[in-house]
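Pasting as-is:
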Amino acid sequence: MNSRKLKIFSQNVRKNKILTNIILETNKISFDIIFFQKPLRYLHCYKPSYSYLEGNPIYGASLHPKWTLFAHYNNNPQDIPRVVTYINNRYKKLRFSL
């Protein structure tokens, strides 16, 4: 990793998955950290559960192989984060955490 300055990008995506994916795909070299305001929260999958036959729903934001997602999601449908952060995988050595 070189000693260049971090480039940060912030965008209100208005719960639009297509816009989120376009920004993540086109800015994987230009920016180091991206903040999305009003991200879309959608159902990823169902986790096996003893209490529910179909399983517990797992919610989250868009995932991308070149970016690490940082967001605090609960399984409570009313608790939706207002901002999510994506950090470029070039900085995985720094071990960011919530």
